């Protein structure tokens, strides 16, 4: 099922990406393993000016369609103090399947396993794809869509008019306040948490 952003987060299979709009989330002291088995602690955030968590789903055509955009953003910003993680919240996906997905879709940055959706719950993610950008202390700076390629009704445009995540990252790198810290997304709802 594919759903659009709105204000009734995770109700009756309608997924939205505005759940975190009321208060800025703080990630806290969470640690997650990547598909290679390496543990990534939130303390790693201090190594970057900001860190992007891209919530993806290997079975979501919308999320998979954005993979070239994820890689372009990684290529453009990783050398500018921005860290990147792909976060898989699927409850039944093995590390081997995540590695295969990463190879197939050219996700060249760490792929975190979040099958219990601990990180997703903390930042109030309900759909994929969705991006959460946090500062070195774990405070949310941006949350929402990658760009406006999909309209809220699910219709895909020929080309996006606004690159929301890219604009936020440019502002962060330039030391500016983020003009639009929230943007509603469209995609596939997270699977039910265990």
Provide a descriptive summary of the structure in words.
The chain is of the alpha/beta class and 194 residues long. It has one domain (3-189): Glutaredoxin. It contains 5 helices and 11 strands; from the N terminus they run ββββααβαβαβββαββ. The protein has helices at 61-65, 67-77, 95-104, 118-122, 164-173; strands spanning 3-4, 31-33, 39-41, 50-56, 82-88, 111-113, 127-128, 130-135, 140-144, 182-183, 186-189. The strands form 3 sheets. It has a 6-stranded mixed beta sheet. A 3-stranded antiparallel beta sheet has the order 1-11-7. Strands 2-3 form a two-stranded antiparallel ribbon. A hairpin with a 5-residue loop joins strand 2 and strand 3. It starts with a strand and ends in a 5-residue tail after the last strand. Mean pLDDT is 85; it is low at 4-25.
């Amino acid at each position: 099922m594919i759903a659009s952003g709105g204000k009734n987060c995770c109700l009756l299979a309608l997924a939205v990406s505005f759940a975190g709009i009321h208060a800025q989330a703080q990630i806290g002291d969470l640690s997650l393993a990547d598909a290679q088995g390496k543990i990534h602690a939130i303390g790693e955030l201090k190594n970057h000016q900001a860190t992007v968590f891209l919530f993806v789903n290997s079975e979501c055509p919308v999320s998979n369609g954005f993979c070239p955009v994820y890689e372009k953003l990684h290529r453009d910003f990783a050398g500018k103090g921005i860290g990147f993680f792909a976060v898989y919240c699927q409850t039944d996906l093995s590390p081997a399947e995540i590695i295969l997905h990463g190879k197939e879709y050219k996700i060249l940055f760490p792929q975190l396993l979040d099958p219990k959706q601990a990180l997703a719950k903390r930042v109030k993610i309900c759909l994929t794809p969705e991006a959460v950008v946090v500062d070195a202390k774990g405070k949310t700076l941006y949350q929402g869509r990658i760009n406006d390629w999909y309209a809220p009704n699910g219709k895909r445009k020929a080309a996006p008019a606004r690159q929301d995540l890219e604009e936020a990252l440019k502002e962060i790198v330039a030391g500016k306040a983020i003009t639009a810290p929230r943007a509603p997304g469209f995609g596939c709802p997270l699977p039910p948490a265990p």
